[in-house]
Specification:
Elements: H1 7-19, H2 27-41, E1 46-56, E2 66-74, E3 77-79, E4 88-89, H3 93-97, E5 104-109, H4 114-120
Antiparallel strand pairs: 1-2, 1-5, 2-3, 3-4
Helix pairs in contact: 1-2
Length: about 120
């Protein structure tokens, strides 16, 4: 079972995923949209920034190599273009979706963090 979206919320998240698919490399934009919807369900919803030693690779549905990734956390799931609308349980997200999961670290990132704006502008 994934995030318990209402029908309208699931549609908004799905629409954002179609606008910002994994192949686009626009995880920041997608995470910000998902966060707004997720906060309707859970005030504690947050953005998570994943980084690794060097490059890391999703096992499917994305560019072949990333330096970072941003996802949204809500209801003990991480939700992004790799997981689809239901999200993926936090406990197995890295192991299920990435090669070399032991090298990936995550931390909370505030929506107002200037780094996010720089990424969106292509810096």
């Amino acid at each position: 079972m994934g995030v318990r979206w209402t029908e309208a919320q699931a549609e908004r998240v799905g629409e954002a995923m179609r606008e910002f698919p994994a192949e686009s490399g626009r995880c920041v934009e997608l995470a910000r949209v998902i966060l707004l919807v997720a906060q309707e369900r859970e005030a504690a919803a947050e953005l998570r920034k994943l980084t690794a030693k060097g490059w890391y690779m999703p096992t499917h549905n994305g560019p072949s190599d990333w330096v970072f990734h941003v996802t949204t956390q809500a209801e003990a799931h991480w939700i992004d273009a790799l997981t689809g609308v239901p999200g993926h349980p936090m406990a197995t997200y890295k192991e299920s979706l990435f090669m070399y999961p032991e090298t990936i670290h995550d931390r909370k990132i505030e929506p107002e963090d200037p780094w996010l704006s720089l990424v969106q502008r292509g810096y």
